[in-house]
Every structure is written in C-alpha cells, then in structure tokens.
Amino acid sequence: TTPSTVEGYKLGKVIIEGKTKQVYNLPEHPGLCLLLSKDRITAGDGVKAHDLAGKAEISNTTNGQVFRLLNEAGVRTAYVKACGSNAFIARKCEMIPIEWVTRRLATGSFLKRNVGVPEGYRFSPPKQETFFKDDANHDPQWSDEQLISAKFELNGLVIGNYCAILKHSPQCMNPFSITGQDEVDIMRRTTLLVFEILERAWQTKNCALIDMKVEFGVDADGNIVLADIIDSDSWRLWPAGDKRLMVDKQVYRNLTSVTSTDLDKVKRNFIWVAEQLADIVPRKDHLVVVLMGSASDTSHSEKIATSCRSLGLNVELRVTSAHKGPEETLRIVREYESVMNNLIFVAVAGRSNGLGPVVSGNTTYPVINCPPVKSDNMQVDVWSSLNLPSGMGCATVLYPEGAALHAATILGLSNFMVWSKLRVKQLNNFVTLKKADKELRGVRNA
C-alpha cells in the first residue's frame, strides 16, 4: 500500500516508477520530489527479480551515506536529505537517459565486449563508457557521437548540440556549424570525479571499488547534476581487492537458482556495505597554523584562513615574531607539535621574513611562506622568503588562496575529503570555463 505522506511530506502523483523505486511529486514543495525505494532486487533488465525484505531501507541508507560524502566534497547533486527509512528528498530534474560507467579493473560485460583483455586489467585513467537506457534493447553502448546526435532537450538544455553561427545569424550555415560536446565533457569529468572520490573513500576501509554507474539530470536552472540512486546495485566492491569476497549485486547476478538462503547472503552483504559507509567519516585530525609577525598582517592572514576553511581545513591564527620574540615563536611551534600529527605552518611576515626560515629550521612539519607583499615593495620584501639559508625547506606562495591550496595538497595526501574538495575545485574551474566559452563563441559575420 502506497502511503499518502512520508515524514510529513504529502505525496502527489507518481512521476515515474522503476523496477526498484518510485518517484513522487510533492505538491506542497515545488521543485522537490520524493524517491521511495522498494523491497525488490532485480538483474538482467528485470528478467530476474525477487522480493527482498529490508532492501529498501538498506538501499536508502547506502544512498544517503554516498551522497553525504559527495555533497560534503562539493559535488553538484540532486540529493537533499533522507526522509524516513526508505525514502529521500531530491531536487526535481529531467533525467538524461544515459548510464555513465567507470571501470578501474576489467571484469563483467567489458570482457565479453572486448575479447582478449584479461580479467583484472587495470585502467589508468579509469575506463569510461556510456549506455543508452533502453531495457527492450538491453541498454546498448553508445558513442559520444550517438549521444551528441540524440540532441536530448531537458529543462531547456540541449545536450551536445551547438551551432556557431546561430547566435549571430538568422540561419545556421552547415559548413560552419559546430557540434558541441560541452555537456558530454562536463558529465564525463564529473563521472570520473565521483568514481575517484568514492574509490578513495573505500580505500580507507581496505575495499576496492572496481566499477560503478551513475546518472545525471538537468535541474530547473539548466544545470547538470548528479542524480538518481547510488547503492549496492550501482557498483562492484571487492574487499581487500579480492573478487572472491565481492559484496555487491554481482553475487545475486551470479546465482543460477535463488533460494532464501542465497537472498539472506545478498542482504547481509548489502548491510555490511551500509555499515562500512556509515563508518567512513572524514578525519579532522589536522591543523593549519597561520603565524603572523604582526597584528597588522591580520587581514592577509584572514584571507588565508577563509580559503583554508573552504577546502575543509582547520585553521588557527597566531601572532608571533621570530625577530622580536624567537623563544616565544619556538614555544608556540612546540605547543602544536606536541598535540598534532598532521600539521602545517604558514608564515606571514613582511619586510625581512625571518619567521618562515626560523620555523622551518626548527620543525620537521611543512612550512609555507606567504608574505603580505605590496606591489611597491614586492621585489625587495619577497627576497627574504625566497633566498633561504641552506637546510631550509619552506615554500613561498604570494597569494593567500595559493597558500591554502598548497596546504590542502599536502594534507590531501592522507585525507580523501581534502583531496576530493581539491578535485571538485578543479572540476568547477573547468565547468566555468566551458560555460563562458559556450556563451561567447560563435562566428560574427563581417
């Protein structure tokens, strides 16, 4: 029986119903919808299907944990929040009927389609494939050219179609037309980003993400966002990288006959995955300490702190001078060294920068110089940060955001969430350039 409300949300009409979920309109919340999972497991385009009590709740929990990580990293998604045990709220999207598959190791259908490739062949970078969602034809693999030529139009956005002349002439002349690949490129890069974030997250549990599929939608503003559900139906997971220990839906796919005992095993695997994801909590065991030589450097240091926080970095500001109070400076350094293992010092000192070199010469932690230089004295003041005595290993970065980014690249080596935020920043830069280029390009007739 379909409920009329879920956690206080009044359900409207069913927007779409799939094999394992229903999507409901929320009449009292324009722009949002509710995805309700079913206690159902299927394979082979629904040819194999069984009821599995509790699967809806497990799937909803798994999906929520995955999107929790992706949203924290800054990935653009449709996911808003969980709503009860077996549903969640999402922003309304028009779905792009394409499954994006990313593979780290060759296995499954890839081996059948690429005879001669040994199982376990490692793709670096990961292999990416697209499949058109069409159950009747078993989701055929598509090329970029097919995807672009389909000209999917969703919420006013045409996927992969652009005419260079169209903006500046009443007619688009074929010899000068350009088939745009902007949206395809954005989805491809986002797909890879999502895979690599989750791959690193699973590595913290000594579990290998072998491959996975995702889908995208176009929101009301015409933005491409990660949408649908990501759960144990969406990927292959091999604990310790051992295929024999697989804990994903492939266990169900491999069954020639299905008993209640088999279904119990599948369910236990799904529960294990959800429990492991719940335990993947990004660590906060790091600190960036901004040491400024004078309170007059506060504005510059606050810019560093703001950039650090945007990248998920804990940061603290201190005032100390290596020239006027070297003993106090080293005492402060020792104070942090005694309580932190993942520690970075950023030295902010103008004129003669003794702060960075002194700290660098007395600690084994990274030190980054970020002097508050001004255009009229840059060449003189920056020299003391660059021309270091022998044995000093501190870097010099001129801009506050650059100092924060440099600190994040160091801490990201051992913190997957910091690394993920850096990757998302790179993706956002790419998308911004793509959109700007699409807006401005076009032949302007003489």
Automatic annotation (TrEMBL):
Stored InterPro entries: PurE_classII, PurE_dom, SAICAR_synt/ADE2_N, SAICAR_synthetase, SAICAR_synthetase_CS
Pfam families named in the record: AIRC, SAICAR_synt
Gene3D superfamilies associated with the record: 3.40.50.1970, ATP-grasp fold, B domain (3.30.470.20), Phosphorylase Kinase, domain 1 (3.30.200.20)
SUPFAM superfamilies: N5-CAIR mutase (phosphoribosylaminoimidazole carboxylase, PurE), SAICAR synthase-like
CDD domains: SAICAR_synt_Ade5 (cd01416)
Origin superkingdom: Eukaryota
MF (Gene Ontology): ATP binding; carboxy-lyase activity; phosphoribosylaminoimidazolesuccinocarboxamide synthase activity
Keyword Kinase: no
A Gene Ontology term for the protein's cellular component: cytosol
Pathway connected to this protein: Purine metabolism; IMP biosynthesis via de novo pathway; 5-amino-1-(5-phospho-D-ribosyl)imidazole-4-carboxamide from 5-amino-1-(5-phospho-D-ribosyl)imidazole-4-carboxylate: step 1/2; Purine metabolism; IMP biosynthesis via de novo pathway; 5-amino-1-(5-phospho-D-ribosyl)imidazole-4-carboxylate from 5-amino-1-(5-phospho-D-ribosyl)imidazole (carboxylase route): step 1/1
Domain PurE intervals: 286-433
Keywords: ATP-binding, Decarboxylase, Ligase, Lyase, Multifunctional enzyme, Nucleotide-binding, Purine biosynthesis
GO biological process: 'de novo' IMP biosynthetic process
PANTHER family: MULTIFUNCTIONAL PROTEIN ADE2, SI:DKEY-6E2.2
Alphabetized HAMAP family for the sequence: PurE_classII, SAICAR_synth
NCBIfam families: purE
Family of this protein: In the N-terminal section; belongs to the SAICAR synthetase family.
Protein name: PurE domain-containing protein
Organism of origin: Drosophila rubida
Taxonomic classification: Eukaryota, Metazoa, Ecdysozoa, Arthropoda, Hexapoda
